[in-house]
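Example 3.2
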Amino acid sequence: MLYYVISLLSQIYVDGPILTAVQDAHLYPDSKYFVDMSLKVDPVTTLKNFYELGDSVQKRDVLQKFIDAHFDPPGSELIESYPEDWVPFPASFLKIEDYHLRRWALHLHRIWRDLCRRVKEDVRDHQELFSLLYVPHPFVIPGGRFREFYYWDSYWILKGLLFSEMFDTAKGMIRNLAYMVDHHGFVPNGGRVYYLLRSQPPLLTPMVYEYYLATGDLEFVQEVLPLLEKEYEFWETHRSQIYHDPETKKELFSYFQYRVNMKTPRPESYREDMELVKDLETDDERHLMWSNVASAAETGWDFSTRWFAQSGPAMHDMKSIRTTSIVPVDLNAFVCVNARILGSFYEIAGRPDKVHAYQRRYERAKLEMKELHWNETDGIWYDYDIEFGTHSNTYYVSNAAPLYAKCYDDEDDVTPRKVYAYLEREGVLSFTKGLPTSLAMGSEQQWDKENAWPPMVHMVIEGFRTTGDPFLMKVAENMATSWLTLSYRSFIQTHAMFEKYNVSAKTEECSAGSGGEYEVQTGFGWTNGVILDLLDKTSVVLVPSSQPSSPVHRVARTDTNPKPPIGRPLSRPRSATAVSAPSQPGRPPMTNRGRVSTHGADTRVSRKTDVKTRASTSLAGERPPLPGAPNPLLTSRSRATSKSSTALPRSHSKTNVRRTSAHPPTQRRASRSPSGPATATAASIIMMACRGHEQVISNLDRSLKQVNAVVRTLQTRGINEALAEAIETGDTALLSEVIRKINANPKLWTISLCSRIASHLRKVLSERNEVYVDAGLEALQTIVSSFGDLLRQTAVTNPSDIGVNVAAEERQVRCIKCIEALREIRINQPFLERRMCPDRRLKFNALMEIFDNKIETL
């Protein structure tokens, strides 16, 4: 049934007369706009009505009228969704030492709410009317023109969600991608019918791995494991080729390519693809061009000179695109780490046959990486050109992807240093605004030009950080600090997060990137995820503006606990018991590559660690255990933890009583030793500070429990009970969040809610926090604008008219109480507006005028 529906939709959105007519007529500025519209009637009726118009559809007004009658605007099939696991202040953010960076992180954390979407049930029930593919769980979109989920964006979004402790949202996003595999055989490029022709870099298995490390949810791993294997088989069946020995013709190993068979333009970029083939004469030439273009879109790098001719008159020209002749180094690195993780997962599941099978695949993938991609002369991996049988020995940031995936021998400590030397020779480490994606900066393609892409920067940083080499870990620390500082400055200047950034030295401030088929997009899902993940792993302190602009960074947490992004041992989930600091007894010994011994480690996992534990948890690790090797998860034993404390020096003891002396007081003070009363004062101050710190932690712990209690109430007993509980806590931040939740759903508002919220609005409006004030102003607007007339009419009703109608009497009491609360706000207007910025003051005054006109005329 689903196949039949997709087939019908393809005639509307992928290849058909309506698509051709609309795109040729340039009805909409962006080719993607039309293919994101939803149908008002079924595809068969729509096509029938279109054919009945005959040649008249060539007239623009006739065509526009037809589209308006048969299609709804884009976005109507998606609704904003408030993530139920979102809390105002995740406990994990306590580890961010710099105040400004912590505020920034909280802002990015709030953006998750703005980017969270859910597919309407109508799409599930009537898939034949929508180009949007149904998925059952809420998800985070990238932002901007990208209204649906995107495959490889989701990996970095998930990393940010995990640091935000939004485990349920992260799990739901993984379930959505697994749902795609279950229903379509693979994960498409994005959540649209027209994306079912191609995928994107295979990162679903690493996503599950990251989620497991954060939660220890083995049951979920085993649940999705068959679908992870199904996706791996898709790449093995449809995207792999056999490499034969050039002399003996013996099969040596498999290699993977992005290879999409396409005989039409990409629907979402129809006009651009048609323009590209206008000078081609035969269908075969056009089909080859479109296949190479779609294959490049599958890489995620759409577009880059990486896929174009590297020499000759057509060098770096889009019309020379030849993606299917390139064996990408990053794709083969991703497949390599997929095999390694799947082997480890199957070891957990107790499937030795599968373990051995994926161990062989992993070893073959390492062989492919070494034989086909590694260039010993340059000390780097390159894409391989199968047409010419040579390396594409040009710098692209993807050359370092195997370092991130750890697709080289475990004992090899030399290769990472060679990779660093290569990047230094190419001069890319000298850029002060990030790591350029390529050096083809004269290109107009967005994956060249002067752009740095956050996921690529993140991969290189994490690749170095997780080597265990102290020098390279320091390099990673400096790169992370630089990227965080520059991104923060850009945010302060532009109040936006971009999908890509400009690395040119010609511009003074940090600006958005450029180039490509569309304007730079803001939001932005994977950028936010990268920043939050780096804040999780790097300790940065910003320099005050009066000092030099370079950031100051302390010894990063990474120096003692390297943690590979997709190569950490399965025995150390994020929420497991924290590892002690290096100077403390009981710390597992470090190996020569920065590994932490897991012998005897406690593998019990609890998602509900307290604030202290979460704030001090430091993650350690290396790659996942090799399939076939002893799995620490299966052999570990509980570690007996011992608490060690260092007593403060006692400044007054029985043997250190101040003795009388004949010296004058001044002489006695001068002759005191440093260990006398002065030390006693210092010790007492330290003890008081410790007690104060414990009190702060206790208060934070209590606040966190209150937040979680309100969230649970909201999920189980509804908004009214959640509001009552928030009011009872007396926490303005918590109350503001509940009000925001109510504001997001206007249908929740009632006279009763108006009365209860109005009684506390003055407190919310008097806060300095702009988010709280905005929530209060929006609630005030709803009360005075939407309920003002009703409040007035109900309040002035003659009691004799009510009679014995108890409900009406109670409603009148609530209205009068609400009006009294509003009058109190009106009386305090001068005080409240002084605390607001001009824009909010203007809005507040306008609302008070509405109150005067609608209600205060009583």
